[in-house]
Amino acid sequence: MLIGKPPDVPSSEITSREAYNEYFNRRRSERRSFLRGVVAAGAVALGADRLAELAANLIDPRIAALAGTKLQTVKSPLTTTGEQLTSFDDITHYNNFYEFGVDKDKPAKNAGGLPTRPWTVKVEGKVAKPLTFDIEALLKLRPLEDRVYRHRCVEGWSMVIPWVGYSLSELIKQCDPLPSAKYVQFLSYFDHHVEKWYGEDATIFWPYSEGLRMDEAMNPLTLLTFGLYGEVLPNQDGAPVRIVVPWKYGFKSAKSIVTVRFVDKMPSTTWNDQAPNEYGFYSNVNPNVDHPRWSQKTERRIGLPFYEQRRTTLMFNGYGDQVASMYNGMNLAKNF
Amino acid sequence: MHMSANSANAASTANAARLAIMKRSTVLILKTLVWIGCLLPLATAIYEAVTNTLGPDPTAQLASITGLTALWMLAGTLAISPLRSLSPRLSWLIKFRRLLGLFVFFYASLHMLTWLGLYAGFDLTTITADITKRRFIIMGVTTWLLLLPLAVTSTTWAIRKLGGKNWNRLHMLVYLAALTAMAHYWWKVKTGVMSPAPYTLVILVLLGIRPLLAWNRKRKARAESSRPGNLASIEP
User: Fold this and answer.
1) Whole-number Å distance between alpha carbons of A157 and A80
2) ω before A162 within 30° of 0 (cis)?
3) Cα–Cα distances in angstroms (integers) from residue B11 to residues A198, A220, B94, in the given order
4) Is A58 exposed, middle or buried (0-12, 13-18, 19+ CB in 10 A)?
5) Which terminus of chain A is more solvent-facing, meaning fewer CB atoms within 10 Å of its CB: N or C?
6) Which of B208, B223, B230 is CA-nearest to residue B82?
7) CB contact under 8 A, A203 and B187
8) Which of B52, B121, B195 is facing A305, going by the closest CB pair?
């Protein structure tokens, strides 16, 4: 990807993010079309079709990152109030997206080549209408809402993120799941050519798989997410579309999804497969159930000084009013 | 912090003579550099903590800096003996092992403090639960407890009091500490995450090479002593 380094300027002259993005996108598209022109002319002159094809792939405009594009949004009654938002910089540079590397700063560096256009989401399995949605159609399916959610990672850290999206139930309703559909499975994008082999960092079977029980998937809080901070999702945060389940540990919220599959049995999910004693299928945020390797009673809020980070973890991450009834009569220590 | 069998004779006249060759001023300069190098991770951490530039998760960053520094310095102390056996010209390295070893203990202690303070909030119930339930914490505390007697007996007075043989035997605990630190690291990271692999490889090589070097030394010594008219060499 062609990334221009912004010139060094005194902080007083630093432009707003919007202005910078506009400038940056314009410059990038100018550079790209110029390059395409030059390379195409050269290829034609040489009569080298193969070369032209190669060049077209190298600077494929479809791979151009759309991150930063403003989204039109509406307010939502389901948004979380009274929390200080985590900065855009921390949300986009402290990521667990293992397909792009294990260290938290790796996805921001490595996810640039994720081809977010064209993009389709295939709905399959036990549904009356198995449909394939183009990302543009998905974006227009329902009005996009601003939803601030607390985000609690199983590792013990947390953020407050202003997501953009609409309830996943809106998509599910379009596909008429059959009565036999008891669970929904989400599969993330994976391509060895794009997501280089980070075998030295982790040994995990891709593609990433996650799942929810039907009632969990239909809960209005479960968000089909397209953006954050009012803008298109940066690739490292799961562009172009991901799931956000705010009362569960972060790994339940699958990124960059390409398949939504309705199934009759509890689907196999990545971290549960990896270490079933550490990551349960439900993985509801629960301060009373320790992770085998650490307590979940408290968490560290990202972006604060070290002496202010520690805070109490809330049952269901503070969303008990909306979700607790789904687990009535269930032993949550056993079904962790 | 420890002495391997080959350096047990470190007090021997030949070695003493060779070590004395290095000029006092050179030693002073090198010692200063080692001090600066060893304090650098701490200085960086303090600077970043004060300026709030430890990154998105300062608590985890402090734990990571102190832990990794202790691990790699531990590997450094274990590298000194094998390096010295490569060439007599590297004998002087022994002058820095105690210092490096004490810094291992220093960073390991800071690392443990990040757990006690920033993770457990000095809360006794949390600390007890951690120690009794979590194997990576058990391994971490074990490592610190193994390093403690080594740090305590690092003074010249203690070496004299214990006697070279006992002191050497005691300081063999460092091998165990290197292994428990390794277990601590592996059990800390998620299943499938390979980040402890480089440290593991280095430690296993440094530990594995020792019997080989000892065998090679014995072979040489036998060859030397069987040569007629040769005065038995004291060289390691």
Assistant:
1) 18
2) no
3) 50, 76, 12
4) exposed
5) N
6) B208
7) no
8) B52
Q: Can you name the residues that pair with A243 across neighbouring β-strands?
A: A224
ipTM: 0.72
Closest CA to B57 of A90, A168, A324: A90
**B95 reaches A (C-beta below 8 A):** no
Which residues does A204 contact at the CB level (< 8 Å), separation at least 6?
A: A98, A270, A274, B192
Determine the Cα–Cα distance for residues B33 and B43; give it in Å rounded to an integer: 14
Total domains in chain B come to: 1
Owner of token pair 């193994």:
B146
Confidence bin at A219 (pLDDT 50/70/90): very high
> To the nearest whole angstrom, how far is the Cα of A117 from the nearest Cα of chain B?
30
Q: Where are the domains of chain A?
A: 11-63, 73-327
> What is the token pair recorded at B157?
């007075």
Can you give the pLDDT at residue A172? Answer: 97
Cα-trace Rg, chain B: 20
Radius of gyration (C-alpha) of chain A in whole angstroms: 21
Residue B9 lies in a domain: yes
**Which residues of chain A are within 8 Å of residue B58 when distances are taken between CB atoms?**
304-306, 309
Token pair of A168 as six digits = 């996943």
How far apart CA B103 and CA B31 sit, in angstroms, is 13
pLDDT value at residue A291: 92
List the one residue out of A94, A88, A100, A108 whose CA is nearest residue B56: A94
The closest alpha carbon to A224, from A154, A115, A147, belongs to A147
**B235 assigned to some structural domain:** no
Neighbours of B212 (CB within 10 A): 10
User: Residue B225 domain-assigned?
Assistant: no
Asked if the structure places residue B227 within a domain, the reply is no
**Which residue from A minimizes the CA distance to B119?**
A310
Q: What is the CATH number of domain A73-327?
A: 3.90.420.10
Q: Which domain holds residue B70?
A: 5-213
Contacting A residues, span 103-122, partner chain B, CB-CB under 8 Å: 104
Contact by Cβ (8 Å): A303, A86: yes
pLDDT at residue B1, rounded to an integer: 45
Closest CB to B191 among A157, A274, A300:
A274
- Residues in A closer than 8 angstroms to B136, CB to CB, are 293
- Tell me which chain A residues have a C-beta less than 8 angstroms from the C-beta of B134: 292-294
